[in-house]
Write a structure and sequence with these properties.
This protein has five helices and 32 strands. By secondary structure, it is mainly beta.
């Protein structure tokens, strides 16, 4: 389907329906059909934020982009028309895509990018997922504006494992740069220095009441007293984990990453880039000591622990407004949020995530592990190139920032790895990603010696046999400062069986694992100065990217790839390569 085809007229109705449904609710007709088709036209769109107009890439002229609606087990077709000015790909975050890495989306991993003027059709195969996922660009920093929600309802005849909400609402946490994000990325690549911080955090694309020139456009969610609402919260930001709360209201968390959780009620959540959280909100008109206010701020604020690095520490707000209460003269009540570096608050929230585990929603935690991996996560440096002046850390302007897993800083190839694997093209990748770091030291002790900063570049992948049970322990390091990292695996969800602070102890820590009801996620927040252990069964053949979901870390090399070999039966083998894959 390459080439500068125009959109077929018959699909315009789908496109318009997608526009109407951008923030629709559960009763939308689009969810009634299986094999739903969507047309996504990516092109430059002018928007105004923070007092200035700017051109961004957007899908169907919307920022955030349209919501995709599906039911469990649906197959959704998305025709992507790249009418923008640069190469791009799209990824369906958290969709396992069984046997179908061809439609997974990360550029130079499973496909060549869709070039300007070309188009490509993605096939999204939903199986076990139910709840909230999301889609986003998976090229450069394009996902700053090219993203949207995926809502997966239960199959017809099935029900939610909780009371059906009156309405549902995607709440997308994002970031806004006044500068062109492409130029922000290019400048950091040119200098080897850190990425310029964003100018605002956003809720559903808006900075909120306390940002310049923004109050009139603050997102509002209208509610009625006594009704229950389902919030589908997505962290689409590129840089920060976020705390989120609503003044005067507690939130009952019922799902994460397209899977159900044992419900628990909290004053705030902590959500990492890449993650989703489903929460029930009872519109019970609680107040925060200011009488009969009918408006309450939703607010999100960054969680960030690496002191010494610049950070966009601005809060973002939206408004929860009761339509059946008299309007109040004063400002909306404001929620209490943890402070920016409150590691204990983040850990207290995350420790409450536990899978639901019912007859209708069973889990299958692997008890025996075939392959153990300890993967250190580091921000590093590389030597500056000849005749370059770099802005990496340290004296002398002679380093550039990098990042690594097990001290391998991943380099994307110029031919996608999936094609190289499928066609046995040599020289594109090395199949020897290590199961452990090359050297051991006190990973989390502050200020490790400078020689640990240096890393090596390579395109190393991990090859596993079909059906292998893999345990990955992610270990944060204090190289250039300890911080938490949202680690995301494509092609799988995984059971987060353990987590802790300090250095992982292989003799003692497995005794603390939760093998009864661990959360089933696709993105795990590895604690700052700590570790997280996850298990998955490699029963999805293909090529699957694993990376930090902080985008600057992704482009610096905090990535690797799992290649899962074909099994013996036809249902355990990759689908054939579609004939219309984009060309590099």
């Amino acid at each position: 389907m390459g080439g500068a085809d125009k959109m077929p007229a018959g699909r315009l109705s789908w496109l318009l329906l997608g526009v109407v449904l951008a923030f629709g609710v559960a009763a939308s007709p689009a969810q009634a059909s299986r094999n739903t088709h969507y047309d996504f036209v990516i092109k430059e769109t002018n928007v105004t934020r923070l007092c200035q107009e700017k051109t961004i890439l957007a899908v169907n002229g919307q920022f955030p982009g349209p919501t995709i609606y599906a039911r469990k087990d649906d197959v959704v077709i998305v025709n992507v028309y790249n009418q923008g000015n640069k190469n791009i790909t799209l990824h369906w975050h958290g969709v396992d895509q069984p046997r179908n890495p061809w439609s997974d989306g990360p550029e130079y991993i499973t496909q060549c990018p869709i070039q300007p003027g070309a188009n490509f059709t993605y096939k999204i195969i939903f199986t076990e997922e139910e709840g909230t996922l999301w889609w986003h660009a998976h090229s450069d920093f394009d996902r700053a504006t090219v993203h949207g929600a995926i809502v997966i309802h239960p199959k017809r005849g099935s029900v939610y494992p909780y009371r059906k909400p009156h309405k549902e609402m995607p709440i997308i946490l994002g970031e806004w740069w006044n500068a062109d994000v492409e130029q922000v990325l290019l400048e950091s690549q040119r200098t080897g220095g850190d990425v310029q911080i964003s100018d605002a955090n956003t809720i559903n694309g808006q900075p909120g009441d306390f940002a310049p020139c923004s109050k009139n456009d603050t997102f509002r969610m209208l509610v009625e007293h006594g009704k229950t609402y389902l919030l589908r919260v997505i962290n689409a930001g590129l840089t920060n984990e976020m705390f989120f709360a609503i003044a005067g209201h507690r939130l009952t968390v019922v799902g994460t990453d397209g899977r159900y959780l044992k419900p628990f009620t909290v004053d705030y959540i902590m959500i990492s880039p890449g993650q989703t959280m489903n929460m029930l909100l009872e519109a019970n008109h609680a107040t925060n000591g200011s009488g009969d206010n009918n408006r309450y701020y939703m607010a999100a604020s960054p969680f960030f622990t690496n002191i010494g690095l610049p950070v966009n520490d601005k809060n973002t707000t939206a408004i929860l407004e009761y339509t059946d209460a008299p309007p109040s003269a004063g400002p909306p009540d404001y929620p209490v949020l943890p402070v920016i570096n409150d590691t204990a608050a983040a850990a207290a929230y995350t420790s409450q995530l536990r899978s639901l585990v019912t007859k209708e929603h069973p889990i299958d935690v692997p008890m025996e592990v075939d392959e153990h991996m300890l993967v250190t996560i580091s921000v590093n440096t590389l030597p500056c190139g000849a005749n370059e002046t770099c802005m990496g850390p340290g004296p002398g302007n002679n380093t550039r920032l990098a990042a690594s897993l097990n001290n391998v800083s991943f380099v994307p190839p110029t031919v996608d790895i999936l094609d190289a694997y499928y066609y046995s093209i040599s020289g594109v990748y090395e199949p020897d990603f290590p199961n452990k770091p090359p050297f051991f030291f006190n990973f989390t002790a502050p200020n490790p010696t400078v020689e640990f900063q240096l890393t090596k570049r390579g395109t190393k992948v991990k090859v596993v046999e079909y059906g292998t049970v893999v345990e990955v322990v992610f270990q944060d390091t204090a190289i250039l400062g300890a911080e938490s990292h949202p680690m995301h695996l494509h092609g799988f969800s995984f059971y987060v069986v353990g987590r802790g602070f300090g250095n992982f102890d292989k003799d003692k820590d497995p005794a603390t694992y939760n093998l009864v009801d661990p959360p089933y996620q696709n993105t795990v927040s590895v604690p700052t100065g700590g570790w997280a252990a996850m298990r998955f069964r490699a029963a999805n053949p293909g090529v699957w990217f694993m990376h930090c979901h902080f985008d600057r870390h992704t482009v610096w090399g905090m990535d690797t790839v799992f290649i899962v070999k074909n099994g013996k039966t036809p249902g355990a083998q990759m689908m054939p390569r579609p004939p219309n894959m984009p060309k590099c």
